[in-house]
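Run log // design_07
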């Protein structure tokens, strides 16, 4: 670890960035948080578009090959609630960049796995590292920016996750068509290394306020858990589970649908459909500006409706209509994610790391279910069964946002946080 840190520091000095914290509103800092989002999702779904290749290599069904995604999201769900505690004494920039670099190791492991069990183990190991990028980045944004600006920067971070999700999938599929899936994952590992170094070079040091270990509610389990078990936050955790479940269900099974008749998409074609994520790279920051002025409820409700409409469009047999539906539904999911990040950061001001960790746990647990629960419907009704699952999940999101995401709900929870927390000495 010391060797890695030394290399990162030399890189930072080489590009001429002072070790003291840079201004938090400059372009470099915004790019840094965008890169944090990029790193958080770069590897997460990289195997989602190569299920047939994995199935052929390991002698399993394409549906079972989808467990490579579930293994990663399950690991994230397990470790995420403890990220705040595990990284409590590590400076934010160091923890985030180290996690972004370290995830390359299990990616290389998965690229050269000799069995399906070993492959799943590697994917699980990668999931144990990823939450440190996501949770600490969101907590850092909330710590350093005012409420309005944090909503905008959180949306920029989520836009980075959008590009990372696309890049991981597209690069893997493209390289698979040229060199095979094993070397494709080697390329993803190299991208993880480069991104981690870039994050360290551009992200300002958190300085003395990084975690408030002695004064933050995250330093005491009792107050933190009392805070995060209030209604609005519990609803937000359920929203996260439904949001990612719908996203994973959509993009796990749409690849299988488009690979079959009458579409006949190949590996590169399936990878190209993830280009619809690029719409969210533009739209999500705009939603962040809306959330800055009107709060997260309005974009959250609009996104749930958009996701349902997009899912229904994919029932068509017309490829452009299907792609339009995928663009709408995927963009909606990233807007929902940005809105949830904003609401939780505001509602759990004295227990952000704990709240964000639990949200991530529920979010990725939902993602794990998203590749499992639609399977019976897929076998019985085909794509229509998957769409029914997505519509149901997004309907739940809409109801919970409408019921719990009021401005006074976030303010009330935050005020209750302040009353319930006793600073630890």
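design_07 sequence
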């Amino acid at each position: 670890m010391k060797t890695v840190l030394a290399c990162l520091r030399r890189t930072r000095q080489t590009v001429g960035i002072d070790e003291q914290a840079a201004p938090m509103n400059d372009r470099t800092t915004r790019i840094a948080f965008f890169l944090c989002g990029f790193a958080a999702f770069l590897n997460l779904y990289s195997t989602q578009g190569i299920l047939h290749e994995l199935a052929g290599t390991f002698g399993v069904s394409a549906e079972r090959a989808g467990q490579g995604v579930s293994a990663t999201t399950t690991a994230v769900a397990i470790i995420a609630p403890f990220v705040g505690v595990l990284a409590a004494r590590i400076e934010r920039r160091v923890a985030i960049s180290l996690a972004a670099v370290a995830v390359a190791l299990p990616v290389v492991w998965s690229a050269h796995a000799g069995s399906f069990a070993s492959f799943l183990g590697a994917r699980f190991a990668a999931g144990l590292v990823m939450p440190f990028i996501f949770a600490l980045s969101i907590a850092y944004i909330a710590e350093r920016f005012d409420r309005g600006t944090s909503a905008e920067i959180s949306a920029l971070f989520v836009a980075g996750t959008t590009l990372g999700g696309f890049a991981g999938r597209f690069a893997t599929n493209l390289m698979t068509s040229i060199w095979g899936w094993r070397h494709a994952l080697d390329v993803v590992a190299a991208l993880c290394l480069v991104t981690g170094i870039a994050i360290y070079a551009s992200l300002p040091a958190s300085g003395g306020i990084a975690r408030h270990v002695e004064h933050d509610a995250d330093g005491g389990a009792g107050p933190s858990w009392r805070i995060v078990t209030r209604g609005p936050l519990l609803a937000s955790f359920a929203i996260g589970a439904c949001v990612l479940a719908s996203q994973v269900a959509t993009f796990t099974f749409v690849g299988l649908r488009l690979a079959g008749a009458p579409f006949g998409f190949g590996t590169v074609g399936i990878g190209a459909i993830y280009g619809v994520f690029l719409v969210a790279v533009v739209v999500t920051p705009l939603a962040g500006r809306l959330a800055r002025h009107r709060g997260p409820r309005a974009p959250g409700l609009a996104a749930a409706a958009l996701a349902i409409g997009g899912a229904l469009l994919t029932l068509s047999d017309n490829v452009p209509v299907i792609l339009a539906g995928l663009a709408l539904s995927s963009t909606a999911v990233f807007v929902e994610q940005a809105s949830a990040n904003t609401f939780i950061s505001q509602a759990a001001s004295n227990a952000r790391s704990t709240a964000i960790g639990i949200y991530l746990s529920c979010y990725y647990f939902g993602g794990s279910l998203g590749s499992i629960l639609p399977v019976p419907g897929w076998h019985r009704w085909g794509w229509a069964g998957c769409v029914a699952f997505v519509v149901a999940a997004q309907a739940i999101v809409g109801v919970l946002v409408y019921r719990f995401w009021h401005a006074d709900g976030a303010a009330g929870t935050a005020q209750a946080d302040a009353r319930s927390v006793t600073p630890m000495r």
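The chain is about 80% helix and 0% strand.
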